[in-house]
Amino acid sequence: MNKKILLLAICLFSFFQMKSQGVASTPEYIKELTKDWQGERFEDGRPKVSDALLKRMKNIQIEEAWGYLRGKGYHNQYEGEWEILHPDSVMTGRVVTVQYMPLRPDYKELVKQKGAKEKRDTIGGSNSWPIQMLKPGDVYVADGYNRIIDGTLIGSNLGNAIYTNSQNGYIFYGSVRDVAGLLDIEGFNGWHKGSDPSYLAEQMLTNINTPIRIGRAIVLPGDVVLANAHGTIFIPAHLADELVLSSEIVGLRDQFGFQRLREKRYTAGQIDTKWTDEIKADFRDWLKKYPDSKLPMTRKELNDYLNSGKARY
Prior knowledge:
Keywords: Magnesium, Metal-binding, Signal. The chain is an alpha/beta fold. The chain has two domains: 51-235, Glucose Oxidase, domain 1 (3-Layer(bba) Sandwich); 239-308, no CATH class. It is 40% helix and 18% strand. It has helices at residues 2-17, 27-33, 51-57, 62-71, 105-117, 129-133, 156-166, 179-183, 237-262, 268-271, 277-288, 299-308; strands spanning 78-79, 83-84, 91-102, 138-143, 170-176, 190-195, 203-208, 212-214, 217-219, 224-228, 231-235. Strands 1, 2, 3, 4, 5, 6, 7, 10 and 11 form a nine-stranded mixed sheet that branches. Strand 8 (212-214) and strand 9 (217-219) form a beta hairpin. Helix 4 packs across helix 9 (237-262). 35% of the residues are buried.
């Protein structure tokens, strides 16, 4: 009798534990993926990195962010060689990830059924589903497996919808159509691998807010992206704050070094290698005289970071 009760309990437990995978990840799964994030979250579970930090990140150089992430063991967060709507602009934002795959009829029907259960629009194309989920400050990041012909994930209509919901743009490891129309959307920007006049065909959305690959980079929902003319880098949310502060201090360090080189106080060899205690002390004195109004961070953030021993000289 005890064995029967035990088997019944195991079966019931397994039944209740089995949950059908939806099109979009559950908040619980996203929280597992981003367990190191300790701050506020969206209802879908993604980390809610502050707008203020996203604004500061626009001044960070790709190389500085890349170097910081490499130092933390994150070697696969960069992708380059993009076509960009507005190369002179910088975009930062919180990532919503989307996976596309070659069309398979039975799987497409299953995705449609699951989308209907999630109360998604099943009349139009599924490539509109992630757009409906976007919040201000989000970036629509999709793996279209670098398909150009018949792999156009958006045109000007969906581009307008993306900007309306996010006030931001997109990054597609794939293609777009109607570039002229996309360029007409004021404030909108996008990174893609190519463009083509064809419509999306023989390609299907399979999931939203799961880990995806963008070229050589791995991207998780809730990552922060920094995109500019030099490429895109995807930053784990829990590292974004320190990355920005560390990179800002590197920027100050460079300002100091350039100034001292122009003054011929130090040689290029002295500045371009590990600094002596004398140069470090000179840098700290230089920072004390730096106007608070021109600092990219607060004076307290600067002092706390320098005193923590994390500063890179």
